[in-house]
Structure prediction request, 417 residues.
Amino acid sequence: MFVLFLLLFNVNDILIADLDGVISPASSSYLVRVVDLAEDQEATCLIFKMDTPGGLDVSMREITKRVLNAKIPVVVYVAPKGARAASAGVFILYASHVSAMAPGTNVGAAHPVSMGGEKMDSVMVEKVTNDAVAYLKALAKERGRNAEWAEQAVRESASVDAETALKLGVSDLIAEDEEDLIEKLDGRRVEVADEEITLHTRGSRTKEVKMTLRERLLLLLTNPNIAYVLLLLGIYGLFFELQNPGMIFPGVVGGICLILGFYSLHVLPVNYAGLALIVLSAILFILEIYITSQGLLTIGGIVALIFGSLILFESDVPYLRVSWEVIMLVVIIIAGFVIFLLTLGVKAQFRRRATGSEGIVGEIGMARTDIKPSGGTIFVHGEFWNAVSDSKIKKGSKVRVIDVKEMILRVEAIDSE
Prediction:
């Protein structure tokens, strides 16, 4: 009876994972883990909700390889409305057992671009393009999808909307939302691990699989804006610690941020000329504090910081570059902080000394004895001092210090004031 119940009613869950943003090592680690989890739980199917501008080729191939060898059906769903499956996202869509799109979404523009600061010559571009075409056509053949359009997507950066993708055989169905997708998947026959199975999704429970804290952190570090800020915090933190040994806090924070920044450099297209300019800007700002340059070092530091920031991540794709807004905000904050320190330094040079013999001039005290031209004693600034006066001053009178010579104060009476 129990076996009959299992046959009539599917009790396995449908797992749902979000592939949102740039495809990176964090994304591939997350999605591979989700496929493993779905297989362990013998899920009815696994749904990838995808909205991506593309990403790293290595990470994309790790995901497609795992999907191709999955023992449970993997459904790639480009959603919500307004989402896209661009560049590397096209390959993941083609590798899925079932590809679906929400209305108002698009897929395509899979032409490979340089992810590093170096530029590819024509021969290298042709090699990379041919390799991408062959790989995507192989995926199309494996899943029975449109191979001709796949080549256009790579060579000509072709892109189509959901309706056109359905007509061309790029996607298998259009679904308004997750509920609609699950309803339309029910009864569909797919080939999984060389075996044809029928999906029974109606009535199945859905279970979202979120990223772990580690995966979220790694995904955050692949953001060029975050990597840029971490590098600056690391560089300036260590410089301030070296200039002021014993502060500890700038050194600790700077060291941690710099290590995290170096991890980001490992997966992002860094230009080391830009990194050198940022380091130079920090040196110029610190030198301005110790060297009078009439602001020239500060101006040089600002220029070096701006140009270094602009070329730090040199890539043809916008999502691998630091945004202008972040650059200008950082430059304004750092320049403002340096100018603030310089202002304090200038004010300190014109401020009257508050310590030593010069700092006591102008202070008000009390005569502890009669003060004569030959001498006497006063109490001023919390201390007893020997003092002289041009005219006799009675004991208990208020006096003002007007000069200091060889640790003897010259004072004047201020009782009349």
Observations:
- The longest strand covers residues 398-405.
- Residues 9-212 form a domain with the 2-enoyl-CoA Hydratase; Chain A, domain 1 fold (CATH 3.90.226.10).
- Residues 1-10 have pLDDT under 50 and may be disordered.
- The chain has three domains: 9-212, 223-350, 358-413.
